[in-house]
Amino acid sequence: KHDVPVSLAMLQLWSSFGTAHHNCPNGIHRGACLLDSSWQSVALIGLLAVSHFNQRDSRFVPAFNSSLVRACDKRLSLKGPVDVGGDAIETLQQIADLKKDVAGLPDIFIGPLTSDASLGVVALAGLPLATIISYWPSSPEASLSSRYPRFMRTIPSDNDLALAVCSFWEHEMQFEAAAVINSNDAKGERYKQALQRYCLEDVYMDLRSFAFEIGSPEGIEEAVKAFGQTGINIAL
């Protein structure tokens, strides 16, 4: 029997506060634009995963019916999912609402989280009652186990990715120059800076950068045109 309950709060993203209402072909949810079905499917997959784990159903995840999982006495109970709306303040408010009921506080928070919201939410992992597992935030700061001892993620940090990319470019491909075309938000700038640090300082490549504003087709076009004028044929 799987009798030991573990409560989860899923921080999902299926709407966006950053989009004007007249540009919302999928409708409005709690004052935010509904994202397309690809985002909504992620939330649904999370619900299905909880159900299949509890049933030890291995149709999509063979490990759910492994001897190790069958021997596990845990049963997941879902508090949520919580739509964070792609907004840092909204994300923190949603979590604050969950924390008002201390007795009913989830054992585990599961992402995803936007880049801007990630560190604010990850800070909750420094509290003794909050464990966070996420597949979204890539900030190197979140790797500080002394500050966030109860935070775990399933993706590498920006620093680890940048080091791997720069090493691959130099040692495997023997590239001498490359470019990064990045969004000018916190995540894009953070990743660009990590690439500059490793590609320029560690492997001594010629690395150019071209930023664009998210949601601006003109900005993307200008960044790509500027890249095209460099003569470099490698871009990330």
Automatic annotation (TrEMBL):
Presence of the UniProt keyword Cell membrane in the record: no
Residue intervals of the Receptor ligand binding region domain: 90-197
Gene Ontology cellular component list: membrane
Cited InterPro entries: ANF_lig-bd_rcpt (IPR001828), Peripla_BP_I (IPR028082)
Family annotation (Pfam families): ANF_receptor
Compartment(s) of residence: Membrane
Keyword terms: Membrane, Transmembrane, Transmembrane helix
Protein name in UniProt: Receptor ligand binding region domain-containing protein
